Amino acid sequence: MNQFVNHSSCTALLVGKKASVDGSTMIARNEDAAGGINPKRFIVVKPDEQPQRYVSTFNGFQLDLPQSPLQYTCTPVADTSDGTWGEAGINSENVAMSATETEFSNTTMLGLDPLELDGIGEEAMLTVVLPYIHSAREGVQRLGELVTKYGTCESNGIAFSDANEIWYFETVGGHHWAAERIPDDSYVLAPNQTGIQEIDFNEPEHFQYSADLKDFADRYHLNKAKEGFNFRDIFGEDTQADHYYNTPRVWYAQKMLNPEVEQDPESRTMPFSRVPSHLISVEDVAMVLSSHYQATEFDPYGQAGTPETRKRYRPIGMNRNQEMHILQIRPNMPKAHAAIHWLAEGVNIFNTPVPFFANCTTTPDNFQYTPTDKSSTASFYWLNKLIAMIADPLFAEHNWDAEVAVSESRKFGFAAGRAAVAKGDAGFSDVKPEDLPAWHDELNAETAATITNDLQYLLHQLVCIRAEKMTPTFEKGGEL
């Protein structure tokens, strides 16, 4: 395996409990595979289905696992011959994990602390960490111990959350890492570059790190600053590619959530976290993660600017979107009803997230059925990918009918999701605790069916619109 291969390049958005509209913590991410197609499934892993020893088919990483794992949701790849890639989920203790945001250590760090080709990587992290933790802080501690002991084959950013805290964990080199507790009143947009800035080694409630992190930097004279310890500057990259691939995503997300702030799209000094100008909702998160520089000269579907500006920057919503998760842990709800795993699949510009109460026993069939050898509308993943394939050229042509059809479908999906959550919140107290998971199964299936049916209708609309736009056609004298 080439240690410099970029297996995925995602965008993460983290929202602290005092920055959200209802006091929830939310960790969200677009999983963007290094190609347009990477079929995904959504499943519930029960304790008796969790292996006792993990052996990676991706890079050979092996680990004996603790006994008594927790149940958890996850979104693995459909074809696990090259690894599991569980990516995101919530366990039965209402701890969420999103793994991972691909990042890059600088060449100095890679030379001094090389990556471990058979160390823990994105492919394994969720499976060997999420079932064994009871808080976000425990997640940082467990993953930190694994990276220190076994090394990692990649540089990554990993998010953990529970009802009270969000932590962002970043690896640098093969064996070093740091994690920061995201301020409750702030959000973070993380592209594919190291983000954590100043670390205060006297604040263990807000920072955790590998034991020799500071000594290592001192020993090799890595810190160029006259004062402070800027993790991003010491261990991260700042290449020309970052200025068109990474920093513009931070700029646009912060433009959406802090429109009053003027910044340069290519600035590397934009802050890691910000206090938003307004409280953030699930819909806000989804809109950021589906954005493509709308209303700027950089929108690939836009008419402003030039052909060059419209292709200058890497957008957040793009062809490589495979699944988007918003892992929401809600306050003022009993533990058995507090966690929601919102899930969208396909290209986020054209889709809508479906809310699943995480305390469930299964997922709908069309979320589990994801063939790898054919496109099928019986699969939620493929249904969304097919919609994107037809909608994309229509959007590029500024086809009004297609744009309206997609917009109306997305509005329907958001409304249906909100209605489903409200229905669950109104009815869960009438359900016996032991019956709640099965009741959630029924509610989740009903919500998924409602949104699936609407997406099937959207596909029909787009096919009808596209049928009138085919190249082989004929008009004479204004008559068909």
Question: What is the class of the largest domain in the CATH system?
Answer: Alpha Beta
Stretches with pLDDT under 50, minimum 5 residues:
1-6
Strand content: 15-25%
Summed over residues and divided by their number, the pLDDT gives a mean of 96
Helix-strand pattern: EEEEEEEEHHHEEEEEHHHHEHEEEHHHH
Organism: Lacticaseibacillus chiayiensis
Catalytic activity: an L-aminoacyl-L-amino acid + H2O = 2 an L-alpha-amino acid
InterPro entries: C69_dipept_A-like (IPR047804), Peptidase_C69 (IPR005322)
GO molecular function: cysteine-type exopeptidase activity; dipeptidase activity
Brief account:
The protein is an alpha+beta fold and 480 residues long. The protein has 12 helices and 17 strands.
How would you describe this protein?
The protein has 480 residues and is of the alpha+beta class. The chain folds into 2 domains: 9-349, Penicillin V Acylase, Chain A (4-Layer Sandwich), CATH 3.60.60.10; 372-470, no CATH class. It contains 12 helices and 17 strands. It has helices spanning 107-112, 122-129, 136-150, 213-219, 231-235, 242-245, 247-257, 282-289, 365-368, 380-396, 400-427, 436-467, and strands at residues 11-15, 25-32, 43-45, 53-55, 62-64, 72-74, 88-90, 96-103, 155-161, 166-172, 176-181, 187-190, 207-209, 273-274, 321-329, 339-345, 354-357. A hairpin with a 3-residue loop joins strand 10 and strand 11 (176-181). Helix 10 (380-396) packs parallel to helix 12 (436-467). The radius of gyration is 22 Å and the shape is globular. The chain starts with 10 loop residues before the first strand and ends in a 13-residue tail after the last helix. Belongs to the peptidase C69 family.
